[in-house]
Design brief:
By secondary structure, the protein is of the alpha/beta class. The chain folds into 4 domains: 167 residues, 2-Layer Sandwich (Beta-Lactamase), CATH 3.30.450.40; 163 residues, Rossmann fold, CATH 3.40.50.300; 74 residues, Helicase, Ruva Protein, domain 3 (Orthogonal Bundle), CATH 1.10.8; 44 residues, Arc Repressor Mutant, subunit A, CATH 1.10.10. The chain contains 17 helices and 19 strands. The strands form 6 sheets. It has a 6-stranded antiparallel sheet with strand order 3-2-1-6-5-4, sandwiched between helices. Strands 10-13-16-9-17 form a 5-stranded parallel sheet. A hairpin with a 2-residue loop joins strand 5 and strand 6. The longest helix is centred in the first third of the chain and has 24 residues. It is globular and about 80 Å long. Adenosine-5'-triphosphate binds next to helix 6, helix 12 and helix 14.
Amino acid sequence: MTAQSLLTTLLPLVADLSRELPEGERYRRLLQAMRALLPCDAAALLRLDGDWLVPLAVDGLSADTLGRRFKVSEHPRFAVLLSSPGPTRFDSDSELPDPYDGLVDGLHGHLEVHDCMGCPLFVDDRPWGLLTLDALDTERFERVELDALQAFASLAAATVNVAERIERLTLRAEIYREASGQQHKEMIGQSKPHKRLVEEIKLVGGSDLTVLITGETGVGKELVAQAIHATSTRADKPLISLNCAALPETLVESELFGHVRGAFTGALNERRGKFELANGGTLFLDEVGELSLTVQAKLLRVLQSGQLQRLGSDKEHQVDVRLIAATNRDLADEVRNGRYRADFYHRLSVYPLQVPALRDRGRDVLLLAGFFLEQNRSRMGLGSLRLSSDAQAALLAYNWPGNVRELEHLIGRSALKALGNCRERPKILSLNAQELDLPDVSTPLIEAPADTALVVTGDLRQATEHYQRQVISACLERHQHNWASAARELGLDRANLGRMAKRLGMK
Ligand SMILES: Nc1ncnc2c1ncn2[C@@H]1O[C@H](COP(=O)(O)OP(=O)(O)OP(=O)(O)O)[C@@H](O)[C@H]1O
Ligand SMILES: [Mg+2]
């Protein structure tokens, strides 16, 4: 590389440092410049977040890579790269598994990375992350001077430093961990609807407003509730959850408000309710649409006064609780139909937050697939777990009635089945479209007679419920009345299907 071409590659990057660029774009340009300088098949920039490496930008790697979260202790190459102060090049016959095996957008069937090098980045003398370069053929990097990578890494460090400073000015809600530590509770996604959701979480998280989270089954409502709590000023106080659907009415009350000894048969001891446990923190009422009118009235009183009484006691307790609620029902509709109290509904929906369906999040489905693939790879002790390109296309084409949860289960199930079909443990396990175990979308759930329009007379609600009954019973028929597998096909949680069937008078 001549000094002239080196300058033409690097100068724009130096200029970028002082420019206002959208998040991601800065990093993408950085990787492009690196690939121009040091030819390779794939490059990545990863940020170190505790024990995890989070890809911020990738070039030449499959789309799902951006959603993967790499635990450093499970990827020895990353560990080696992070532990040396300068660039490292791995011998092409190195025995260490490569985290990108199967992920480089290479020629068909050419999946294993053969030449690999990388360099840690330091910001304020602290390890910030990694730059990595990979090639599918051997000895590609032989001629490349490690000095060039080292020089580039300094420029990269300056770039991330600038980006971090800009980012630090805005609150960051994307990444947080459960108080217990290990589990990575992150909301994966880069689509516009996802980003809008994250912005809203930041916005409302900073307030003390009551939030009503709505959205289809499996979209991530619970995760959103946790994120709101984590970004709020109450983050270091408890987040207490109650699933309102899981308990019969009498127990819901004692769960919420607590009881004194002898308040009802079986109340052997005095017990504090979720409200008191959440004092100072947040109470998350999941499936809030399932509360009976009576309990709604009692909750309303507590919300209005901030005072509650344990069951069987007339003593008042003062509580300071922020409320978050979630439902996949249309509560406004429930109000119109007299099944929900209007005043309670208005108390809940001070800030309504709609979580978008997975089918509306574009390529996020691939990122999420990558996130779950890496989890399963780790759990199953595999070297690499990847999607073939027809599998990626199938995921993008499917309409995900059960949203993220359906995707999570699908990946886990498919990986297990694919492994079961292997005679010996593969180095790289690829899932193709057939192995994905997607419901056959080409056959409609109900065969409608051709050319006959569906004639609906009377009340729309009754017609809809009638249709739902038909779909559910046909599906149960197909699954020999196995509720769990029928729920899977319908993209519903098993408990939700049970409740729905009950509401439709089928149980
Ligand atoms: N953006 C995301 N990134 C990573 N994981 C996600 C994301 N959204 C959802 N999940 C995961 O998908 C699963 C379903 O999410 P969650 O339980 O929050 O959905 P839900 O909307 O509450 O579903 P339901 O309506 O059935 O109660 C969980 O395992 C959750 O961790
Ligand atoms: Mg939920």
